[in-house]
Amino acid sequence: MPDRRTALKVVSGGALAVGGAAVATPSLGLVAGPAVTTPRPERPGAHPAGAGADEAGWYRVAELSALRPGEPFQATVRGDEVDAWSVAPDRRLGAVWLLREAGDAVRALSAECPHVGCQIERAERVFRCPCHVSDFDLQGRCLTGPSPRAMDPLDVRVRDGGVFVRFVRYRLGTAAREVL
Asked: pLDDT per position in the chain (180 positions), as tens?
């Protein structure tokens, strides 16, 4: 009788070990994989910074011909949204305010309020955050309200008739401008 019990213990222990390994291996890969690998884009030619972005993170957001000097123009930044496990193609990543100056010079300001991240809108002669009524002049300086700093400037360049913005997000609620 002890031989049967010993054999049963060995067989059930082995089955438990094999079953545990079958469950643990993919689970460890799911948890540890993103920490040690870079996600691969699903589309050939797509970059982890997003569709529409080149390797340095520049997004084409508008045509220069659509911008009138001195008149703010809101542009949407679209691209692939990448997280640790997946790529969601052609998503709205954010918005920017473009201001064409003399000639082909363009300035870009993030349309995300530095206070808590609400979408900054265009009012009469100012930009306004509707959430807590922070007002900003057309240069992006904070005039009134609880915003801890001016609107966040973004790098912009004009090439082949297109306006490109290096889109980044900044930490909210602080006076210091810190890229996330």
From this structure: 568 778 777 778 777 777 766 676 666 555 555 555 444 433 333 333 444 666 578 999 999 999 999 899 999 999 888 888 888 898 999 999 999 998 889 999 999 999 999 999 999 899 999 999 999 999 999 999 999 999 999 999 999 999 999 999 999 999 999 998
**Domain residue spans of the chain:** 1-37, 58-166
Instruction: Report the distance separating Cα 31 and Cα 37, nearest Å.
Output: 11
Looking at the DSSP bridge assignments, the partners of residue 119 are 112
Residue 138 and residue 140: Cα distance in Å, rounded? Answer: 5
- If phi > 0 it is left, if psi is from -120 to 50 it is alpha, else beta; for residue 141 that is beta
Query: At the topology level of CATH, where does 58-166 sit?
Result: Rieske Iron-sulfur Protein (2.102.10)
The reported pTM is 0.69
Evaluate whether 41 touches 47 at the Cβ level (below 8 Å). Answer: yes
Integer Cα distance of 166 and 180 in angstroms: 13
* Token couple for 140: 């992006």
